[in-house]
Amino acid sequence: MVERTEETKKLSTEDDEDDLEPLLAGLLENKDSFESMLKLFSKVKDSGLLNALETLSSEYLPSDIEFLSNFLTSRDFLYGFVKTINVVTALSHALSNEKGSDAIKAIMYNSDELWDGMISGAKNPEATSLLRLYAMIKDPDISAGLTALLNALKAIGSALRKVPDE
Predict the structure, then answer these.
(1) Does an H or E element contain 27, and which?
(2) CB 82 within 8 A of CB 90
(3) Treating both helix axes as pointing N-terminal to C-terminal, what angle do 31-47 and 49-59 enclose, rounded to 10 degrees?
(4) Residue 61: half-sphere exposure toward Cβ, Cα within 13 Å
(5) pTM of the model
(6) Sorting pLDDT into bands at 50, 70 and 90, what band is 27?
(7) Mean pLDDT estimate for the chain
């Protein structure tokens, strides 16, 4: 019986060595990739993300995890996620454009004037006749803002005409 146990151990050790050889060869061939993955894994562990995931998984029952996995892999969630990524990408592209980012910065850095003007206009409305409106349009700032809004409306209209019908 002792001989049989030793023989079984010897056979299983040889099989394990045969199984490990291709794995070790693959590891040595892709040494740089595995080192990069280990560094990345180490950074994720150091950031505390792994601990948070462990805590999250230990606090939920298997049925909750099953629900979460079903939800996160559902068609509706994935479709919404892809749409959101597309919008974020478009927004990132728009903000990376020098003109777009400069325009947004100019408006945001001067937002106090913008909000004050809007609030005072809403709280103290003035009767506007056609002649007063004509006089206001002659103001270079109002004329510039009105032209900018009309050009923006034209661009928005042109872009919206390209949206496919569903």
Answers:
(1) helix 2-29
(2) no
(3) 70
(4) 2
(5) 0.43
(6) confident
(7) 83
HSE value, Cβ hemisphere, 13 Å, CA-based, for 93: 6
Contact 143, 149 (CB under 8 A): no
**DSSP characters for 117-159?**
HHHHHHHS-----HHHHHHHHTSHHHHHHHHHHHHHHHHHHHH
Residue 45 has pLDDT above 70, yes or no: yes
What percent of the chain has a predicted confidence (pLDDT) above 70? 86
Q: For the residues of 95-121, what is the DSSP string, one character each? A: HHSHHHHHHHHHHHHTHHHHHHHHHHH
Residue whose entry in the numeric block shows the structure tokens 């892809």: 82
Which pLDDT score is estimated for 141? 92
